[in-house]
Specification:
Aspartate Aminotransferase, domain 1, alpha+beta, 6-stranded antiparallel β-sheet, 3 helices
Length: about 130
């Protein structure tokens, strides 16, 4: 764990275990990933961004758990899942999805299949 990541989670340290579980699976399951800590998000590239972790409030406050991370994925299709909190198509056939993660159990095989799909899609972009 880098000091940059620890600083990023300084305002919400209880969410750090969620991030650690997510990052661990991403790095174990996807080759040639670079992690970049930015002001508002932590991005994963291969070499283009395919996923990010942040604190986006994609649900109304009353519906958000106390501690969470928001995982953002870019795909060439819209995911049809109740797990997706928000989806938009900023460019034709390029969908951005936001998923609020509040427990390590949500970092499951289904989520990781979408992350791998996003990495493959990102790697193929020009």
């Amino acid at each position: 764990m880098t000091s940059e990541i620890l600083f990023f989670f300084n305002r919400n340290p209880a969410a750090l275990p969620l991030y650690e579980a997510f990052e661990s699976r991403v790095l174990a399951e996807i080759d040639n990933v670079t992690v970049k800590v930015q002001k508002t998000q932590i991005t994963y590239t291969n070499p283009k961004v395919f996923a990010a972790a942040a604190f986006l409030p994609v649900r109304k406050k009353a519906l958000r758990p106390e501690h969470y991370i928001t995982v953002t994925l870019g795909l060439n299709r819209r995911l049809d899942s109740p797990r997706v909190d928000a989806a938009s198509e900023p460019y034709p056939a390029r969908w951005t999805h936001h998923l609020l993660i509040s427990s390590p159990e949500e970092i499951d095989d289904e989520l990781m299949a979408w992350v791998r799909e996003a990495a493959t899609f990102s790697a193929a972009k020009r």
